[in-house]
Amino acid sequence: MSAALVASILLVGMLSGCTAAPTAESVKASLGAVPIPTAPAVDPMPTATIGKPQLLAMGAPTLVVFDAATRGTATVTGPDQTITQPAASASASASASRARASTAATITLTVGSASGSIPLTASDLVCRDETGAVIPLTAVGPASATAPAGGTAQLVVSGIFTTGAAQVTWQPSGHPLALWDFNIELD
After folding, report:
1. Rg (the chain; Cα; Å)
2. pTM for the full model?
3. Cα–Cα dist 17/76, whole Å
């Protein structure tokens, strides 16, 4: 066989496997219409249980499941600032000048019960600043409330917050269920 004939056979063999690039229409015709899933209208709500608490941004809701008969939703909102105290001035003593600006503020826990009765008490809310120090909270109004099946309840607490990050944890009967993270900015 001549070299020209071998080259021609190889070239024909290589070109016979090549076809034009498929078009969108040809792919659709060969595969059929392929559905593209759409995103849900809202993000799915995380579920918090006593064994698996949720970490949430302030204001984010969570499903709460206490047991098979008791479940609902919980949201913590705030802090709603009431009074801001400026930080110590530069002319103050060294220990006082380390003080940061602070504000009195309220935090609201709102719970809706889908089934069962969900009790709320101010002592079940624990707040800590970015260093882990406890921020004492006191009830504004009743220190306890109950969300009956199909109903809602609110509990409002107040504390003194300084500039920086903080978190509030709802821990019914001492068991963490949900933790909401937030920042206080007092510039």
Report:
1. 31
2. 0.71
3. 64
